[in-house]
Design a protein that fits this description.
Layout lengths: L5 E7 L2 E6 L11 E9 L2 H8 L9 E2 L4 E8 L11 E4 L9 H4 L25 E4 L2 H4 E3 L6 H4 L5 H11 L8 E5 L3 H10 L6 E6 L2 H9 L4 E4 L4 H8 L5 E6 L4 H10 E9 L11 H4 L5 E3 L8 H9 L9 E5 L4 H9 L1 H4 L3 E5 L13
Parallel strand pairs: 9-10, 9-12, 10-11, 12-13, 13-14, 15-16
Antiparallel strand pairs: 1-2, 1-4, 3-5, 3-7, 3-16, 5-6, 6-8
Helix pairs in contact: 5-6, 8-9
C-alpha cells in the first residue's frame, strides 16, 4: 500500500480539501482495505459540505461509493480476497442484528448502516477501510466498467428501493418522478422495469428534462408550469398512481402530495434539510400512502446482474470524468450542475490503466 495517502477531508461547513491522511488499516477481523479505482460524488456530500448533516465530524474523509481492488482483509472475511475487484456499497451491514436479518441493512444496529463518509472515513481517497466486508462489498462482473459499476453503489439501489419498490410501481401505473437529477433519472429507468403505462418527469432545468426523455420518460413538465395539471390531464383528472419525490425541499414534497391520486403512493427519496408541511386537512380522506427511507442496498446483487446484462442505462448518467486527485474541481462541477450540466461525475484511474496489486500467475 502507498504511504502518505490522500483523501478529500471535511473540515466544517464550506471547508474541505484534498490532503494527506493516514493510511487505513484493518481494525476488526471483518474489515477489508480497498484501493479506490473509481469514486463518485453524491448530492448527500453536498448536503454535508453545507452543514446539513451535523453528525459528520470535521476531519472525516467524505464519500460512500467506490469501485476498487481488495488489497487486505481481516481474518474473518470469507467472500472476497486480495486481488478481487469489488463495488463498495454505500451501506455497511453487520448481518446479525434484527434489521440486517430482515434485509433492512440501512438501519443496522451494530455499527453498520450509512457510516462511510458519515461516521467514519469514506471512499473519496486512495484507499478505504470497509467494515463488515462480507456483506458490504460486492464482486463486480467482468463485463462492467468501473464507471458503470460505481453508479450501483448508491444511486441505482436508492432509486429502485426507496422510490420504485417503496412506491409499489405496477404494470399500467402512471408514475410521476419529481426531480430529474441522478436519482430521479435512475428512478425513471428502474420504474420502466415494471411496465408502467407512462412515466412523467418534472424538473426546473430543460437539460435534465431532455435527459429524462433519454432515460425513458414518456412526458416531461417544467416545475414552474403547473405540472400537476399535466398529470391530471394525462390521467383523466385522477392523478398519478405513484409519485417519487427526488429533490428534498418542502415545495417539491408538497407538490407531490397534490399530484398523487386518491389511493396512490408517494415515495419520498429526497434528503430533506428542513421541515415540510403535511397537509392532512386535504390528505386524511384520500387513502394516500407516504413512504420514507434510507437505501438498504439489498437489491445491489440483482442490479449488478441487470447492469451486466445490459438492462440498466448506468453509463449514460456519467457526464464528467476526472483523475482522482482533481477532487475539488469535480466538486465544483457537480455542485454547479445548473451551469455545467453535470449529472454524475466519476473520478479515478481509467480502467485500462489500473495495475493489479498482485500479478497474476
Amino acid at each position: 500500500m502507498s504511504t502518505g495517502m490522500k483523501g478529500y477531508v471535511f473540515h466544517g461547513p464550506g471547508q474541505s480539501a484534498w490532503e494527506e491522511v493516514p493510511d487505513p488499516a484493518v481494525e476488526e477481523p471483518t474489515d477489508a482495505i480497498v484501493r479506490v479505482d473509481a469514486v463518485t460524488i453524491c448530492g448527500t456530500d453536498l448536503h454535508i459540505l453545507k452543514g446539513d448533516v451535523p453528525e459528520v465530524r470535521p476531519g472525516t474523509v467524505l464519500g460512500h461509493e467506490a469501485v476498487g481492488e481488495v488489497v487486505e482483509t481481516g481474518g474473518d472475511v470469507r467472500t472476497v480476497r486480495p486481488g478481487d475487484r469489488v463495488l463498495v456499497s454505500c451501506i455497511s451491514a453487520c448481518g446479525r442484528c434484527r434489521y440486517c436479518r430482515e434485509g433492512v441493512y440501512g438501519q443496522c444496529l451494530d455499527g453498520g448502516g450509512w457510516i462511510l463518509g458519515h461516521l467514519i472515513d469514506g471512499t473519496q481517497a486512495e484507499y478505504v477501510r470497509v467494515p463488515y466486508a462480507d456483506l458490504s462489498v460486492h464482486p463486480v462482473p467482468g463485463t462492467l466498467t468501473n464507471e458503470d459499476a460505481v453508479l450501483l453503489a448508491d444511486i441505482f439501489p436508492t432509486a429502485y428501493e426507496v422510490g420504485v419498490l417503496n412506491g409499489g410501481v405496477r404494470p399500467g401505473d402512471t408514475v410521476a418522478v419529481v426531480g430529474a437529477g441522478p436519482v430521479g433519472l435512475a428512478a425513471i429507468a428502474t420504474a420502466r422495469l415494471f411496465s408502467p403505462e407512462r412515466v412523467i418527469a418534472v424538473d426546473l432545468a430543460a437539460p435534465r428534462l431532455e435527459a429524462a426523455k433519454a432515460f425513458g420518460a414518456d412526458a416531461v413538465a417544467d416545475a414552474n408550469e403547473d405540472p400537476g395539471q399535466l398529470v391530471a390531464d394525462l390521467t383523466g383528472g385522477l392523478g398519478a398512481d405513484v409519485v417519487v419525490e427526488a429533490v428534498g425541499v418542502p415545495e417539491t414534497f408538497e407538490m407531490c402530495t397534490r399530484m398523487v391520486r386518491p389511493g396512490g403512493r408517494l415515495a419520498n427519496v429526497g434528503v430533506h434539510g428542513g421541515p415540510a408541511t403535511l397537509h392532512l386537512e386535504d390528505l386524511w380522506i384520500k387513502n394516500v400512502t407516504i413512504t420514507t427511507g434510507l437505501v438498504d442496498t439489498r437489491s445491489t446483487p440483482t442490479l449488478l446482474r441487470m447492469a451486466a446484462a445490459g438492462r440498466l442505462p448506468t453509463g449514460q448518467l456519467v457526464t464528467h470524468t476526472f483523475p482522482l486527485d482533481h477532487m475539488q474541481e469535480a466538486y465544483d462541477v457537480f455542485g454547479n450542475a445548473a451551469e455545467t450540466g453535470a449529472l454524475k461525475v466519476v473520478l479515478g484511474v481509467p480502467q485500462h490503466e489500473v495495475v493489479p496489486v498482485h500479478p497474476t500467475s
